[in-house]
Amino acid sequence: MSVRLEWHEVLMAAQIGIQREVEAIKRSSADRRPNIKHSWDQCIRGALGELAACKALGVFWDGSVNTYRRKPDIMPNIQVRTRPEDGPRLQYDLIVRRSDKDTDAFVLVAGQRSAFVVRGWITGREAKVPENMRNYDGHEMAWFVPRSSLRPIEELAHLMHGGRN
Asked: Which of 5, 45, 65, 84 is least surrounded by Cβ atoms within 10 Å, i.e. has the fewest?
């Protein structure tokens, strides 16, 4: 599903991304991410992806800061994984880590600036199968779910709204 963010939404999400990175620097957690070379970009892109996912799902985005690992990106149990524009690198699979909850839904968003595509979703339990386990670029082992294995985002939206459209 394609999602176009309005410019005021882009500005709001970018500001939240900046706040998140500043908070990570303040608590020194940014220093524990040696493989991340462009954390500012990732924080901003992540916030933009969360907002795009919310628009696709028809729900409110709260733009929370300092809630990492304590609450989901989207209530009640949705985690958003945002990738840059589609390209050949890793086929932009959806990543699920060991610490991720089996009961959470994981949504893959790809894009940048104001144009995003919400690729689909999968539960943590469904993602954590041996054939998805990879170790890319020396990072820790994780599950990388191919886009072809994701369910349509419309299905998750339908479930979130109690089967109503």
From this structure: 84
